[in-house]
Amino acid sequence: MKKALITGITGQDGSYLAELLLGKGYQVYGLQRRASSPNTSRVDHLFENEREQNPNFFMMYGDLSDSSNLVRIMHHIQPDEIYNLAAQSHVGVSFDKPEYTANVNALGPLRILETIRNLKLKVKFYQASSSEMFGKVLAIPQNEQTPFNPQSPYGLSKVFAFHMTRIFRTGYGVFASNGILFNHESPRRGLTFVTRKITLGLARIKLGLQHTLRLGNLEAKRDWGYSKDYVEVIWRILQHNQPDDFVIATGETHTVREFVDEAAEYFGLELEWVGVGREEKGLDKKTGNVIVEIDQNYFRPNEVEFLQGDASKARRLLGWCPTVTFKELVKFMAEEDLKYAEEEVKLGRPVVVQRKYLVK
């Protein structure tokens, strides 16, 4: 039985990947940071079924900033595969906490790779790289040969980890691969990310629980896919016959405004956009009420306007292609967030949205 260690298992991708690997017969070990309040809502359903505790799923406390802890855990588990998904994952926050972002996102993968080398582990390593590394893009679309041009501490930290992964592959013979994933979403996406802000915010507006949705750059274009599709290719990357780097994307771009319009349509809200630039507003055509406003606080010091990936290599070598369209993705998220908003109405108070997730 293969053993897999997943860092960042309590996040969106980590939880879907854990489900995938357990379904393939793996023993799955998850690394979570110690916190005073529960933070395992996305994986709680994996601990046990109706009859017994899951014998193949384990959680361990650890942190990518603690080398000695990583050595102890990896020596104990002796994993066959390591999926490093842990990160300070919010681009906006990275401008406020650049040192912390670099410590976790850049030095964290280095600590794992050094542990692999020093313990002489026969393990396959996956590094979660990001489309934010391309930043202010130098070519359209972006593929594995496109130069990086990061515009945030987050993007730069991921560039460091990307190249360190390649160096350990070529210099030390570690089976180490990078997956350069473009934006990917799901009902399990964190609440601070723009897609969840949109679907949950509009669900609350639909039910009268919220009046206005405040957003940043509506013109930013992103290549949005479905997280569950993307963890499938993450697994395939480590099953490839040799370590390599792969761009993972849909090849389609949509603006934040398009995401808002698509979600609004699902909720039966017809928007009319008025005004120019940062004074623009989205009005409800039926009532004239302001539903969407631009908030200066949500603009980044350096904006990344356009990202579009070319996943031809992954399609050709890994046999992968996305299965969920942009429209379907927005619908998945809107459906789930409407359930949470309806629960708030029922309880008469806000609910902890990330307390429980349906396995969708």
From TrEMBL:
Pfam families in the record, alphabetically? GDP_Man_Dehyd
Chemical reaction(s) catalysed: GDP-alpha-D-mannose = GDP-4-dehydro-alpha-D-rhamnose + H2O
Q: Which InterPro entries match?
A: GDP_Man_deHydtase (IPR006368), NAD(P)-bd_dom (IPR016040), NAD(P)-bd_dom_sf (IPR036291)
List the cofactors.
NADP(+)
Task: Keywords in alphabetical order, please.
Answer: Lyase, NADP
Gene Ontology MF, one:
GDP-mannose 4,6-dehydratase activity
The yes or no answer to whether the keyword ATP-binding is present is no
GO terms for biological process? 'de novo' GDP-L-fucose biosynthetic process
NAD(P)-binding domain ranges (all copies): 5-333
The record, for CDD domains, names: GDP_MD_SDR_e
EC number per UniProt: 4.2.1.47
Per its UniProt record, what HAMAP family does this chain match?
A: GDP_Man_dehydratase (MF_00955)
Described purpose of this protein according to its UniProt entry:
Catalyzes the conversion of GDP-D-mannose to GDP-4-dehydro-6-deoxy-D-mannose.
- Family per similarity comment: Belongs to the NAD(P)-dependent epimerase/dehydratase family. GDP-mannose 4,6-dehydratase subfamily.
Specify the protein name. GDP-mannose 4,6-dehydratase
Please report the organism this UniProt entry assigns to the protein.
Answer: Candidatus Falkowbacteria bacterium RIFCSPHIGHO2_02_FULL_42_9
Name the encoding gene, please. gmd
